[in-house]
Amino acid sequence: MASRLRSHGALVLVVVLLAAASMALVGVVVNGFGRSTTAVASCEPSHTASQVVQVGLYDGGNGMMGAAPMMLRLIPSPSSGSAGQVTFVVTNYGALNHEFLVLPMPADGIGTRPVGSDGKIDESQSLGEASTSCGAGPGNGIATGSRSWVTLTLRPGNYELLCDVPWHYADGMYAAFTVT
Ligand SMILES: [Cu+2]
To answer: 142 alpha carbon to ligand 1 midpoint, in Å?
Structure first.
C-alpha cells in the first residue's frame, strides 16, 4: 500500500513537471511574439515624405497560419503614387530575413529579371534600398518582426519592388509600383 502511494506520488510529480514544462514552452512562444510586436511598434521612421507606401514582406512564417510554407510575397499598399518624394516603410511579417529594393520596371514586366547562379538579380540599376533592421537604407536585411524605410524621389514611370535575398526574386518576391 505504501509503495503504491509512493508510485502514485511519483506519477503526480511527473504530471506536474510536464505541465510546468509545457507552460514554460508556451511562455517562450508568447514572449517571442511579444518581442516581435514591440520591435515593430518601437521602430518608426524618424522622417516620412507626404507619400507613404507601406510594404509587407511575407514568407508563410509568423502570422500567416494556414498559408503554404515558403509563399514569398512583397505587397505594397498602395501600389501607385504621384511623382515626387515617396517613403517606403517596409515591415517583415515573415520568419526569414528579407530585403527591399526599388528598380525601374524591366522591359518585359515584373518577375522577368535574369537570376544568376547565386540566386540574385543585377542590382546595378537599384534606385534605393530599405534593407536593415529598424533603420533607413541598405544593410544586412530586415529581420523578422522588424521594419526598414527609404525615401526616394521618383519620376513618373513603372517600377519594380523586390527582395534580393538569394532565390527570393526567383520565388516571386516582387511587385509593381506605378508613379503618375
Ligand atoms: Cu525575401
So the answer is: 9
CA of 6 to the centre of ligand 1 (A): 56
Per-residue pLDDT tens digits for 116-151 = 999 999 999 999 999 999 999 999 999 999 999 999
Measured in Å, residue 98 CA sits from the centre of ligand 1 at 4
Q: Could you report the per-residue pLDDT of 22-37, keeping only the tens digit for each?
A: 433 333 333 333 334 4
- Cα(18) to ligand 1 centroid in Å equals 38
pTM score, whole prediction: 0.74
Asked whether the beta carbons of 165 and 141 are under 8 A apart, the reply is yes
Grid cell for residue 105 = 520596371
CATH node for 51-179: 2.60.40.420
Q: What is the DSSP letter of 179?
A: E
Q: Which residues contact 94 (CB under 8 A, 6 or more apart)?
A: 57, 58, 59, 60, 61, 62, 64, 72, 144
Which has the closest alpha carbon to 132: 150, 114, 152? 150
